[in-house]
Structures are given as C-alpha cells and as structure tokens.
Amino acid sequence: MIELDISHIRLGERPLIVCDVDDVVLQFIGPFQLFLQSQGHEFLPRSFRLHGNIVSKADGVAIEDQQVSRLIEEFFEAQELWQTPLDRVVETLGRLSEEADVLFLTAMQPRFQEQRRRLLDRMGLLFPLLATEQPKGPIVHALHASRSLPVVFIDDMARNLHSVRDHVADCLLIHLMPNSPVHRFAPAAADDITRAADWAHAAELIETHFLSNTVSRAAPAA
Q: What residues form DSSP beta bridges with 153?
C-alpha cells in the first residue's frame, strides 16, 4: 500500500518507461560538487554517500550530518541554476516517447517538485513527474498494475532497481549511472539487472525489449 497520489497519471495502451532523474536524466554529482565549492566546501569521494565526505575547504574537517542535509536541501532549492541534462537524454527520451509512455520517478522531497518540474520543462522533458522518498518498487507496481504491456525501469541506485524487481514481474531493469569518482563506490546491482553504458545503449536495450514483447504477443498459441 502506497501513500503517494498517482491518480493524476494517465497511461495509454503502450509500453511504460519509468525513469529516475538525478544522475540518470540530470547531472547531480558534478553540479553538486560545484555548488559545494561555492559554499566553501569540498566533496571527497571516499564512499558512496554524501554524509561524512563533505569537508570544509578552510580546514579539511568533515562537516556535521545535519549541515550536509541542509546543503542538499539548499542545492535542490537552487537546482535550476546548477543541474544540466546527461548527454543524449533529451533526444533519446523524445524518440522513445513516440512508442511508449515516459514517467519520471525522482527520489527527493516533494516540496522540491516545482523547481524540478520547471527545470525539466525548460529542457523539453515534459513527461509526468513524481517526487517521493518512498520505495520505488510499490510505486511502479501501482502504476503498471496488471497491464500486459512491456515496462522498463531505469535508475542509478541498485537498491531502487532491486525494489522494482521485487514488485514488478517481467520488468526490464536498467542500471544507468555516470562515470564519476563517487559512483565507483556504488553497490553493484544483482546479476539479473542490465548495466547500460550510456543513453544510446539504454535505448538499444529498451527497443529490443519492446520488439521481443511485440513478437511474443503476436505469436500464435501452440
């Protein structure tokens, strides 16, 4: 049972692509590092987490977790000034949207959704957006329900991919993340989850998935 209101989402009789946003559609780590520098701080990629790895440029001392959380909120408040799209994402999603519904499921506090909506719109990424910190598996399950159409989920976080795998059968799971120093520490996704090198590769995987499902549905029963 999920609390997120998805009643306004209207899906057509077509495949569904559910896509994360930070470091999948919009650059996050790079812009966040620049933001930190503007605030007199520096991010040291020592593990796959922000808390504990942000230090003061003045003395190199790690700042407290509460201050890190506040900086993350300030960054999302000002995201329109910092974040840019990943390479080829705009044209790729535009092309895929000709045969599938696309929906953004972003892991952030809903109070920052308006800023994200404006930013995505400015880039021509006009697809529906859901902002929540809830687990993604139940949400994708609620969206897809019992539809027999193909469904795809794209994320840079293994835990989100695992969550969707556990709740949505026959979903194509794509692990897509930037080649950044911090992502080298990212937990590995399970072996049944496909890693995409970039958006061109992701598009190939998605189109193959759609085609194979179309063929299987069209095949006569034995």
A: 18, 173
E strand map for 27-171: 41-43, 54-56, 101-107, 129-132, 151-155
Q: Hey, what domains does the chain have and what are their CATH numbers?
A: 16-27+84-218 (3.40.50.1000), 29-81 (no CATH)
Q: Is the pLDDT of residue 217 over 80?
A: no
8 A C-beta contact, residue 11 and residue 143: yes
171: tokens are 């979903």
The closest of 139, 30, 42, 138 to 87, measured between CA atoms, is: 30
- Distance, in Å, from the CA atom of 87 to the CA atom of 176, rounded to the nearest integer, reads 12
Range 153-167 average pLDDT = 97
The owner of tokens 């001392």 is 61
CA dist 27 → 87, 134, 155, 186 (Å): 9, 22, 13, 16
3-state secondary structure of 173: strand
In whole angstroms, give the CA distance from residue 59 to residue 191: 42
